[in-house]
TrEMBL record:
Keywords attached to this entry: Exopolysaccharide synthesis, Membrane, Transferase, Transmembrane, Transmembrane helix
Name of the featured protein: Bacterial sugar transferase domain-containing protein
One cellular component term from this protein's GO annotations in UniProt: membrane
Organism of derivation: Methylobacterium gregans
Residue stretches making up the Bacterial sugar transferase domain: 311-491
Principal localisation: membrane
Pfam family, one: Bac_transf
Segments passing through the bilayer: 37-58, 78-95, 115-132, 138-157, 316-337
């Protein structure tokens, strides 16, 4: 039946391994449905087992060690604590789709999301215990042990689950989606060059090549050729029974895309339009609705309202604690500055903050006061730096007054470092996406700084590296990420690189 067709069109039936899967195509569909249901249930069961086992083991160990036996109340309080933690973790992961096969196949690390969720679960435990006046019912030792040991146990369980799923989700596995590709030869070749089936969590069971239009061809002949190719492609799809059909025809070819849609809406498979190379820059894009208007969302707000509230609450709490603990140090630094050189204790400079709104940033003065001197970036062995100022800059203590900016809401503890206005205007014209740094509040420290990207920027490459780290932070923010950066700011030697 295919002898009068161009050989490229029915290449799907000649590909190695496809003949074996064609005759089994009627059977895997049920197994695939069971697998796509069973994998999330198994992943959720692993989290549940980890939380329950960790809590019960610690409760029983504490009871036998400290209470010389196992009181009847231990059963109840252990199960209550484990149940509340599991409820928060499982519900949140289910709503976020973290148990789906696609999420488990994601090569990006799950550790930050798990850590943030674990902190949120314990926050829920504290709130519920406070409201119900049951905080004294829980053993502090068991609660602390569960908090400390539960997180690495959850991470280990998720790593093991993801590894098993990735091992099972091979291109030949019945658990992955079976996909058929339709498009012009160069577009399909580009798809294969830029993607690997196992990394995408799918299996390509067939490929239908459409003949490219001949320049100057008669429109009626072109339409007949397209109809002929699509009729054969639909027949192949009906025979192979894939789960999904991807149309790789460029969106600019509107008429051809419309004909493909009309053709493949007649087959029992999910139909997808694959975006062109321009939209490949945005891996997280999705179709969204604003009111009654639909559009392709290629970028969300850097932080949603809940994330903004969480980050601000953390900033305020941590800043108040830091100011209380560091008050003696701040006083000592201020006295040392006054004794070392004449001039004010604080240095103020206008910089751009969130949404490019200017604000006055505070720092301990580390240079000699020079009235009406034009701004010039500090360099290594700068003669303007005072003896006390050199120590403050090497140890990052000159940045501590910016805690006041955090209290005022102009800055955050962690975020892209604000630059002088002259530098902002200059780099915005020369560095792509530089202005995206202003989509979040600037920070006292940041991901670029703890990676040694601070100090003098001699070339555009220096600033490009800094901006790349800042944008990575914006796109991957989490409370756990902020905590990591704060710890590394204090303890990591790289955070002190180029400090002069």
């Amino acid at each position: 039946m295919f002898q009068d067709r161009p050989p490229r069109i029915y290449r799907a039936l000649a590909e190695p391994g496809v003949r074996r899967t064609v005759w089994a195509a009627l059977l895997p569909r049920r197994r695939r449905a069971l697998a796509r249901l069973g994998v999330p249930l198994a992943a959720a069961s692993v989290d549940l087992a980890v939380i329950v086992c960790t809590t019960l083991l610690l409760e029983y160990a504490y009871a036998y060690t400290m209470e010389a036996g196992l009181p009847a109340s231990s059963h109840l309080r252990a199960w209550r604590l484990a149940g509340l933690l599991a409820l928060v973790v499982l519900c949140a992961n289910t709503l976020r789709g973290s148990y789906m096969i696609e999420s488990l196949l994601d090569r990006r690390p799950h550790l930050q999301r798990i850590a943030s969720l674990w902190l949120a679960a314990w926050g829920a435990v504290l709130v519920v215990s406070f409201v119900t006046k049951t905080t004294t019912d829980f053993s502090r030792a068991v609660a602390a042990g569960t908090f400390v040991l539960g997180l690495p146990a959850l991470m280990a369980g998720r790593a093991l689950t993801a590894r098993v799923v990735r091992r099972l989700a091979l291109p030949g596995s019945s658990s992955v989606a079976r996909v058929h590709l339709v498009g012009y030869e160069e577009d399909i070749a580009r798809f294969y060059a830029g993607n690997q089936a196992d990394a995408l969590g799918l299996r390509v069971v067939g490929t239908s090549y459409l003949r490219a239009p001949t320049p100057g061809a008669d429109p009626a002949a072109r339409q007949a050729q397209m109809d002929e190719d699509l009729d054969l492609a639909v027949s192949v799809v009906r025979f192979l029974r894939p789960d999904d059909v991807f149309i790789l025809v460029p969106w600019a070819s509107t008429a051809e895309v419309e004909r493909c849609i009309d053709a493949f809406l007649r087959v029992p498979a999910a139909l997808h339009l694959r975006p062109g190379t321009v939209l490949d820059r945005f891996p997280d894009m999705q179709v969204s609705r604003v009111g009654r208007l639909s559009g392709i969302n290629i970028g969300r707000r850097p932080l949603n309202l809940a994330e903004v509230a969480l980050k601000r609450a953390f900033d305020l709490a941590a800043t108040l604690v830091a100011l209380a603990l560091l008050a003696p140090l701040l006083g000592a630094v201020a006295l040392a500055i006054k004794l070392d050189s004449p001039g004010p204790v604080f240095f103020r400079q206008k910089r751009y903050g969130f949404n490019q709104q200017p604000f006055w940033v505070f720092k301990f003065r580390s240079m000699r006061a020079e009235a009406d001197a034009p701004f010039r970036q500090a360099t290594r062995s700068d003669a303007r730096v005072t003896r006390v100022g050199a120590f403050l800059r090497r140890t990052n203590l000159d940045e501590l007054p910016q805690l006041l900016n955090v209290l005022k809401g102009e800055m955050s503890l962690v975020g892209p470092r604000p630059h002088a206005l002259a530098h902002d205007r200059s780099f915005e014209r020369r560095i792509a996406l530089y202005a995206r740094r202003h989509n979040v509040r600037p920070g006292i420290t940041g991901w670029a700084q703890v990676n040694g990207l601070r100090g003098e920027t001699l070339t555009d490459a220096d600033m490009q590296a800094r901006v790349a780290h800042d944008l990575h932070y914006i796109d991957n923010w989490s409370l756990w990420f902020d905590l990591q950066i704060i710890v590394r700011t204090v303890l990591s030697p790289r955070a002190y690189d180029n400090a002069f």
